[in-house]
Amino acid sequence: MVDGVAINTRLKDEQGSSWRENKKEYMPCLGSVEPFKGNLLECAVRNGYGRYEQTILLSDGARWIRNMGEAVFPDALQILDFYHLAENSYSFGKYRFQGEAKQYTPWAEELIGLLRDSRGEEVMRRLEVYKEKTFPAGVVNPYTYIEHNRNKIDYAEYKRRGYYIGSGPIESENKTVVQKRCKQAGMRAMLKAHSGRFSTRKPSP
């Protein structure tokens, strides 16, 4: 199926219009990361990978995505989604201050402000007290999370270069293209019938 959709951008063409026809390619893979890596590389090459001035991989910081990015796109700049980082800061703040908004809100906002200004080293010093600590399931250790993504949080520089720092578009498309479509009645049977084909497809030579 093929279609395009017009979106309003920040750039104007020769006629002064900021509207652009947007074409997208979705590359689904129902299965493990191994077949997904090959499919993703094939998709990237087909869309110009290797000819880009700069390749950027923007994600929520999950370990499997970090590892995949380093293996498949070793030249890429990886950026940690700023809004996942902010969300985790608020969630940890709620845990630390036992849900007291008057305490956790300013704590989280100060942390987020420092990160937005690329003051990650200062944030790491503040969070070092949590370096060796473990927390209940669902509570992300903020020190560990940032430490694992330390080279992906130079947000002031990313903004200066005009890069996106949020993965909102792909998160939204996960919901609209995949979840809304695949969580309807009868979809489990369809996915079961096609799971082998989706998960074992290999990239073209």
Q: Write down how many β-strands occur, each being a DSSP E stretch of 2 or more residues.
A: 4
Q: Distance between the terminal alpha carbons, to the nearest Å?
A: 24 Å
Dominant shape: globular
Described by strand count, sense and barrel closure, the largest sheet is:
2 strands, antiparallel
User: Helix- and strand-based class?
Assistant: mainly alpha
Placed side by side, the strands forming the largest sheet appear as: 1-2
> What's the helix-strand series?
EEHEHEHHHHHHH
Protein model, in words:
It is a single chain. By secondary structure, the chain is mainly alpha-helical. The chain has a domain at 82-159. It is 52% helix and 8% strand. The strands form 2 sheets. The protein has a two-stranded antiparallel ribbon with strand order 1-2. It is globular, with a radius of gyration of 20 Å.
